[in-house]
Design a protein that fits this description.
By secondary structure, the protein is an alpha/beta fold. It has 18 helices and 25 strands. The chain has three domains: about 100 residues, Udp-n-acetylmuramoylalanyl-d-glutamate--2,6- Diaminopimelate Ligase, Chain: A, domain 1, CATH 3.40.1390; about 230 residues, UDP-N-acetylmuramoyl-L-alanine:D-glutamate ligase; about 150 residues, Alpha-Beta Complex (Protein-Tyrosine Phosphatase, Chain A). An eleven-stranded mixed sheet has the order 10-9-8-11-7-12-13-14-15-16-17, sandwiched between helices. Strand 18 and strand 19 form a beta hairpin. Helix 5 packs parallel to helix 7 and helix 6 crosses helix 12. The chain is globular, with a radius of gyration of 24 Å. The chain starts with 8 loop residues before the first strand and ends with a helix.
Length: about 500
């Protein structure tokens, strides 16, 4: 999505901000105008600059001819890509990804600085924090845009997300559209991939939040310290004005001590933190809480969110909202109505006598946290269904399998999105040396695994189906098949009555 009002920019200015070389002269470049910018040949509009990026399997310059045929007037790429482009002016840079963010921010006149933007990063909690913050801003009559794993929201427009953080050309276009529609805020998730691949190059945030760091994405980053370094790179004045950091997390404490940004610390229990809970009562259907914040602010309210990790998410959202100018009285009033993000401890209720939830948990820590949370309100047994995705960090699979067995009374191992991998191999890695004895099971077919969980559930039990959350498809051997845990679970319960 692009803003309705489009500006133009000459190639000389583009070349300048990107430090690009060209066969054309200064004067020749200054006469060529672009009226749009994109990295995807499928999104080309006449007058666009096409940014051809190197990819894991193919170079974007292979699609330059398609872009030119659709109206691209110039191409920006690296030396390798330049050899594949003919027929239009070519700007050559060392890193097209890094250049894309700088050019897009220039073209759209840095829209994120006009939106009081908030970026949230961390292994777990990004989606929930941004969803809660979006709800708080909207409840306080502060029109807000949202960009995240599940969807992008601009007013009444809802766009399904292809990735957690869009490529830079899309990100800046979305932000410009939000500004054009008079949004006051943008809240968005910032993945470690996005930081490392320069998708947020040229972006600027009023606040950046850090939730936690646990093992994930080591197939991409290599090791946990490199993963942390990717996250920490966001916490500089190049990207943000202030940091909100959960210091209960060991990497959060490390980041708070090392970042150059002013730090607003949060903690569930540590009174040293600028924002912290002073009282938590989880004995009822709603969790009642009191918390202290900047200047001694006291907020007393309740929430329907369960689990300590969700209280962490809520605390971060409240802290950012108040620091952004939202009245604490408004937050106290809206807190009981706030709901978690789709597929995050999302209840499935069709009148059964047991609890049933779906959650996106796909890291060892997230699995443990969710199962601990449901344990708090489960009178009977916790029955958990979990799989691990293929073509992703394989080192976390046995850890997730252990978290499943340790956190559930009945552990059911199943398939998630095997993608190009053999689902049986993934399951073997999850189980490892564990001995699976009845009623625990290894059931490769995810639908059958969910149906088995329902078949053994008794009144007072809780079923937790983990791993896919909001996802509505299952990727097997390169094919994406329709599959929604929420729908399959509801159908299984209805069919068992």
């Amino acid at each position: 999505m692009r803003p309705f009002s489009q500006s133009t920019l000459n190639l000389q200015k583009v070349a300048g901000v990107a430090s690009a070389s060209s066969a054309l002269t200064f004067e020749e470049l200054s006469k060529i105008l672009i009226s749009g910018i994109t990295h995807s040949d499928s999104k080309i509009e006449p007058g666009d600059l096409f940014i051809a990026m190197p990819g894991a399997n193919r170079h974007g310059a292979e699609f330059a001819q398609s872009a030119i045929e659709k109206g691209a007037v110039a191409v920006l790429t690296d030396q390798e890509g330049a050899a594949l482009v003919k027929g239009v002016p070519v700007l050559v840079v060392k890193d097209p990804r890094q250049a894309a963010g700088l050019i897009a921010a220039l073209f759209y006149n840095e829209p994120m600085r006009d939106l009081a933007s908030v970026g949230v990063t961390g292994t777990n909690g990004k989606t929930t924090v941004t969803s809660l913050l979006y709800q708080i801003f909207e409840a306080a009559d502060r029109d807000c845009g949202l960009i995240g794993t599940i969807e992008t929201r601009i007013g009444k427009d809802v766009i399904e997300s292809a990735r957690t953080t869009p490529e830079a050309t899309d990100l800046q276009a979305l932000a410009a559209t939000m500004r054009e529609r008079h949004m006051r805020h943008l809240v968005m998730e910032v993945s470690s991939h996005a930081i490392a691949l320069h998708r947020v190059q040229g972006a600027h945030f009023a606040f950046v939040g850090f939730t936690n760091l646990t093992q994930d994405h080591l197939d991409f980053h290599g090791d946990i310290e490199s993963y942390f370094a990717a996250k920490a790179a966001l916490f500089t004045f190049n990207y943000a004005d202030q940091a909100v950091i959960n210091i209960d997390d060991s990497y959060g404490a490390k980041l708070a001590a090392s970042t150059e940004l002013p730090v607003i610390s949060i903690s569930r229990t540590n009174p040293i933190a600028k924002w912290h809970f002073t009282e938590i009562d989880a004995s009822g259907k709603q969790v009642h809480f009191k918390l202290r914040g900047s200047g001694g602010i006291l907020i007393e309210s309740s929430t329907q969110l369960r689990g300590g990790y969700n209280l962490d998410n809520l605390l971060m959202a409240i802290a950012i909202a108040v620091e952004s100018g939202v009245d604490p009285i408004d937050i106290a009033a809206s807190a009981p109505k706030l709901s978690g993000a789709a597929g995050r401890l999302e209840e499935v209720n069709v009148g059964q006598t047991f609890n049933a939830f779906v959650d996106y948990a796909h890291t060892p820590d997230a699995v443990s946290n969710v199962l601990s949370a449901v344990r708090e309100f489960t009178a009977g047994r916790v029955i958990a269904v979990l799989g691990c995705g293929g073509d992703r960090d394989s080192s976390k699979r046995p850890l997730m399998g252990s978290a499943l067995t340790n956190g559930a009374d009945i552990a059911i191992f199943t398939s998630d999105n095997p993608r190009s991998e053999d689902a049986q191999v993934i399951l073997q890695q999850m189980v490892g040396s564990q001995k699976i004895s009845d009623p625990a099971r290894v059931i490769e077919d995810r639908k059958s695994a969910i149906e088995y969980a329902v078949s053994i559930a008794k009144p007072g039990d809780t079923i937790a189906v983990l791993g896919k959350g909001h996802e509505v498809g299952q990727e097997i051997s390169g094919e994406k098949l329709p599959f929604d845990d929420r729908v399959v679970l509801a159908q299984a319960i209805a069919g068992a009555k």
